[in-house]
Design brief:
Pfam families: ADP_ribosyl_GH
Strand content: under 5%
Structural class: mainly alpha
GO molecular function, one term: hydrolase activity
CATH architecture: Orthogonal Bundle
Cofactor: Mg(2+)
Helix content: 40-55%
Shape: globular
Keywords: Hydrolase, Magnesium, Metal-binding
Number of helices: 14
Family: Belongs to the ADP-ribosylglycohydrolase family.
Length: 336
């Protein structure tokens, strides 16, 4: 049974709102060069995006969040098929859908549903990977923020690792993408429960032969002075995770973390959404500036308050217990 203090519940909301805020903050800066430190990062409209409008990064997380809020287990193939169906419906009129994701969705069986649709998505992802020769873009990591909220019980970590890889592989066949989602989902879970960052422990959930490689990648991220210094295209899931982790490692708080992520340039909305999910899980929804939250919108009918409500429903579930007094849990940095 999960004990959720009000602090932990705020962190659950922070994982979702933090990702959406980073996404909306970074959207107008996407595909531009690195932003100089002297230039302020502001929430504003730009390109096709309205003020505070999130992109596909957050929109693709919404069906996952809604499934969890209904009490569904995302490692269930029928639930995965329902998520794919929502993605297909959303993609018809979406302003932006990742190239790889759109290719996969277009190859799924139009008449399939439930378990069959999940299987069709996996097959399509494999085909797209074979054709391109690679499929480790950052499009599955960007949507992984809410996953941990349905897996907060003590025994749930292995199930979360399975769910994270299963959701990733619906569109991203390559191992790097699944690994990144496992690491980040488990790190978000740890941050919600403890108020601390830990991306090293989650590496232990990867296959043994993958762990040393990821420790090296995290070493490189921590050694970099700024996300802009991470080598490689941050459209690649590894560089995106490294840039997000670098931003967090050097940040003084939530706002600083996502602003650093945006300054990296290129795929700014996605890197900031990834960073925002983990930073929000650590520092909580209260750390997301109100001036940003009040403008958040994207999925039809959803704004920040609806996202927060869904996040709380996903975390609470049927068996969770809410502590009646917030200060039951006191951890270093909780007041930050």
């Amino acid at each position: 049974m999960t004990l959720l203090t009000s602090i932990r519940l705020d962190r659950c909301s922070g994982a979702v709102l933090g990702s959406a805020a980073g996404d909306a903050l970074g959207a107008p800066y996407e595909f531009q060069p690195s932003v100089p430190d002297a230039m302020p990062i502001t929430l504003h409209a730009g390109g096709p995006w309205e003020l505070g409008e999130w992109t596909d990064d957050t929109s693709m997380a919404v069906p996952i969040l809604r499934a969890l809020a209904r009490g569904e287990r995302v490692e269930d193939a029928a639930v995965l098929g329902g998520i794919v169906a929502e993605w297909r419906g959303w993609a018809v009129d979406a302003k932006d859908v990742g190239i790889q994701t759109r290719q996969v969705l277009a190859r799924t069986d139009p008449d399939a549903s439930g378990v069959r649709l999940a299987g069709s998505a996996y097959a399509a992802a494999s085909t797209v990977h074979r054709i391109a020769g690679r499929s480790a873009g950052n499009g599955s990591l960007m949507r992984t923020g809410p996953l941990a909220l349905g897996y907060l019980d003590d025994a749930d970590a292995p199930a979360l690792a399975t769910a994270a890889r299963s959701v990733s592989e619906l569109t991203h066949y390559e191992w790097d993408a699944g690994d990144a989602c496992v690491i980040w989902s488990l790190a978000i879970r740890h941050a919600v429960l403890t108020g601390e960052f830990d991306v090293r422990g989650p590496v232990g959930a990867l296959p043994t032969d993958r762990r040393a490689l990821w420790h090296e990648r995290l070493d490189a991220a921590e050694a970099s002075g700024h996300p802009r210094d991470i080598p490689g295209d941050n459209g690649w899931v590894v560089a995106a995770l490294q840039a997000a982790w670098c931003a967090i490692v050097h940040a003084q708080g939530f706002e600083d973390a996502v602003e650093r992520a945006v300054r990296a340039g290129d795929d700014t909305d996605t890197v900031a959404a990834i960073a925002g999910a983990l930073a929000g899980a650590r520092w909580g929804a209260a750390s997301v500036p109100f001036g940003w939250r009040r403008h958040l919108h994207g999925w039809p009918g959803l704004d920040a308050s609806e996202l927060q409500s869904l996040a709380e429903q996903a975390a609470l579930g049927e068996d969770a217990v809410v502590a009646p007094v917030a200060p039951v849990e006191v951890l270093p940095g909780d007041a930050a």
